[in-house]
């Protein structure tokens, strides 16, 4: 299922600001934060690293999380991940 850009920001339970960090730091921070969350909670991520798009898609696919939405047209890049 394709990930869409939201018209409005989805509700979220936690936020992670990874602006200014480069791979692999944003991915590691997101993995650790998701571990501390409960199933169904939503993490909103802010990033300036373009590789996070690929990284977060792969993380969700391999770890069973849902990449609910992403906003990629402007900085910061934004992602909403629901913990699986």
Structure, explained:
By secondary structure, this protein is an alpha+beta fold. It has a domain at 27-82: Translation Initiation Factor IF3, CATH 3.30.110. The protein contains two helices and four strands. It has helices spanning 25-35, 52-63, and strands spanning 14-18, 42-47, 66-71, 77-82. A hairpin with a 5-residue loop joins strand 3 and strand 4.
Could you outline the blueprint of secondary structure elements for this entry?
Blueprint: E1 14-18, H1 25-35, E2 42-47, H2 52-63, E3 66-71, E4 77-82
Structural class: alpha+beta
What is the typical, i.e. mean, pLDDT?
96
Extended strand count:
4
**N-to-C CA distance:** 16 Å
- What is the ordering of alpha helices and beta strands? EHEHEE
CATH topology of the domain at 27-82: Translation Initiation Factor IF3
Indicate the CATH class of the domain at 27-82.
Alpha Beta
Gyration radius, in Å:
11 Å
Brief descriptors of the model:
globular; single chain; 27% helix; 84 residues; four-stranded mixed sheet; Translation Initiation Factor IF3; alpha+beta
Please sum up the structure shown.
With 84 residues, the chain is an alpha+beta fold. The protein has helices at residues 25-35, 52-63, and strands at 14-18, 42-47, 66-71, 77-82. Strands 1-2-4-3 form a 4-stranded mixed sheet, covered by helices on one side.
């Amino acid at each position: 299922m394709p990930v869409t850009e939201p018209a409005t920001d989805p509700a979220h339970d936690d936020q992670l600001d990874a602006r200014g960090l480069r791979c692999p730091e944003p991915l590691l921070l997101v993995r650790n934060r998701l571990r501390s969350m409960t199933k169904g909670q939503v993490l909103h991520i802010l990033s300036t690293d373009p590789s996070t798009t690929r990284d977060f898609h792969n993380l969700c696919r391999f770890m069973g999380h849902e990449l609910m939405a992403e906003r990629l047209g402007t900085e910061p890049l934004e992602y909403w991940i629901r913990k699986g």
